[in-house]
Amino acid sequence: MTVTLSSPEGMLPNAPYHHVAVGTGSRHVYIAGQVAHTDDGSPIPADLAGQVAQAMRNVARGLRGGGADFGDVVRLTVYVTDWRPAKIGDFMAGIAAVADEVGLPTPMPPATLIGVQALYEPEVLVEIEATAVVN
């Protein structure tokens, strides 16, 4: 296994992600920020949960294209517009909706959620980047 995930004692307990990832592979895969656009050009979902789910599908597609999967991910960075703690339920609903489909481990790899004022298109509510390490 090229990635070992852990949450050392004393770090925030019961987080939906691991705090530490150690990658031992020699090939790194970087996935650019993915949003909820679809390959068929259909409109992106208007809700946060729907956008998170589709963005995660797009991250999974990018990982596969780089010869990786979520088991190889050492870091996720998530940008959410107008973030406030009350949005965590919708955010996590989007994650839960696709976790099995995309092979996202539970808890997730180390993740950072950053609130931003806006993203590059007004209807885009979330953008997700990933870094993976594979042999």
From TrEMBL:
Pfam (any one): Ribonuc_L-PSP
Keywords: Hydrolase
GO molecular function term, any single one: hydrolase activity
UniProt superkingdom: Bacteria
Known EC number: 3.5.-.-
Broad EC category: hydrolase
SUPFAM superfamilies named among the record's database cross-references: YjgF-like
Listed Gene3D superfamilies: RutC-like
PANTHER family: 2-IMINOBUTANOATE/2-IMINOPROPANOATE DEAMINASE RIDA, PROTEIN HMF1-RELATED
Family: Belongs to the RutC family.
Name under which the protein is recorded: RidA family protein
